């Protein structure tokens, strides 16, 4: 078991995690381990905001480009890769920084208990994929009403996963979620926060940069290379909307921009709700300033050995 202490920099999309993670890694002599559920796929570069070649030369980045885009990738697989990267960091005397906004990935690394014992079932998944969103949601509501109420019906991947867990274990996913909290490995969890209006503006700027950098061409290239539109990677925010844009030939880029901004804003709200439930999280309100302004505070907390501690998360 990997017992190395981990510095986690989490938060909402566009809050500034990448900027602060890079600065903290340089200040502490660390390496960045990505906690982004879309960045694990090769070829998903623009829409995930992967670090540039220059940033990767400054600081080693792990857990990027782990899987071809047409294939599935599970939380358990990510957990194994991230723990291996953390152990390697510790062996080199480097500080492991887990940086990203995928709360389930981060929790999978921090919690020392195994994930629900339900390996992927390709046959069941293929059958469920053929069903409509409403049918899947009703099926989940019958066996796991708590999880059905918590998940967005459009989030097919997690709805199908919940049904898969029930089929494999005979227990609802919520039974694992509501169990006594397992022990966590040593860590400091910093969650970056910004006022809603500022975050929305930053999201819009981020979407504009991605569209200008060629997001539509990136997605078109993936589809032309044979990646199915329904593939797991294509359900990521930004990619799903771009696939729909390409399918509806003649749609305007302005409409695509608006759709991605709306989907990203909703996703950020879910991220914020998720991290508010994380025990011991230290929330840092960045206001409208650059994320790197929080570096002295984060470095001081890390060197003091703070975390996990019981913090008071902000109210919604």
Secondary structure layout plus pairing:
Blueprint lengths: L5 E6 L5 H12 L1 E5 L18 H6 L2 E2 L12 H18 L2 E5 L3 H8 L11 H8 L3 H11 L1 H6 L5 H14 L3 H5 L9 E7 L2 H18 L1 H10 L14 H9 L5 H24 L5 E4 L9 H10 L12
Parallel strand pairs: 1-4, 1-5, 2-3, 2-4, 5-6
Account of the protein in words:
This protein is of the alpha/beta class. It has 2 domains: 226 residues, Rossmann fold, CATH 3.40.50.300; 56 residues, Histone, subunit A (Orthogonal Bundle). The chain contains 14 helices and 6 strands. A 6-stranded parallel β-sheet has the order 3-2-4-1-5-6, with helices on both faces. Helix 2 links the parallel strand 2 and strand 3. The chain is globular and about 50 Å long. The chain starts with 5 loop residues before the first strand and ends in a 12-residue tail after the last helix.
């Amino acid at each position: 078991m990997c017992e190395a202490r981990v510095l986690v920099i989490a938060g909402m999309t566009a809050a500034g995690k990448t900027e602060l993670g890079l600065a903290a890694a340089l200040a502490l002599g660390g390496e960045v381990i990505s906690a982004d559920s879309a960045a694990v796929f090769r070829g998903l570069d623009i829409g995930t905001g992967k670090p540039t070649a220059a940033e990767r030369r400054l600081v080693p980045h792990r857990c990027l480009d782990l899987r071809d885009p047409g294939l599935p990738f599970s939380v358990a697989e990510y957990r194994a890769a991230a723990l291996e990267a953390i152990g390697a960091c510790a062996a080199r005397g480097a500080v492991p920084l887990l940086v990203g906004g995928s709360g389930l990935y981060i929790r999978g690394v921090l919690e020392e208990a195994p994930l629900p014992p339900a390996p992927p079932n390709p046959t069941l998944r293929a059958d469920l994929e053929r069903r409509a969103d409403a049918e899947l949601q009703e099926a989940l509501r019958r066996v796991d009403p708590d999880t059905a109420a918590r998940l967005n019906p459009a989030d097919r991947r997690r709805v199908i996963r919940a049904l898969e867990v029930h089929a494999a274990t005979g227990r609802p996913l919520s039974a694992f979620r509501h169990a006594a909290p397992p022990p966590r490995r040593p860590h400091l969890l910093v969650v970056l926060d910004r006022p809603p209006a500022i975050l929305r503006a930053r999201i819009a700027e981020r979407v504009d940069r991605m569209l200008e950098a060629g997001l539509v061409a990136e997605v078109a290239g993936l589809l032309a290379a044979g990646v199915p539109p329904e593939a797991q990677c294509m359900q990521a925010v930004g990619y799903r909307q771009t696939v729909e844009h390409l399918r509806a030939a003649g749609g305007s880029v302005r409409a695509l921009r608006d759709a991605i901004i709306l989907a990203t804003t909703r996703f950020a709200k879910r991220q914020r709700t998720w991290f508010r439930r994380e025990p011991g999280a230290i929330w840092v309100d960045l206001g409208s300033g650059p994320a790197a302004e929080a570096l002295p505070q984060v470095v001081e907390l890390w060197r003091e050995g703070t975390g996990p501690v019981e913090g008071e998360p902000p109210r919604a």
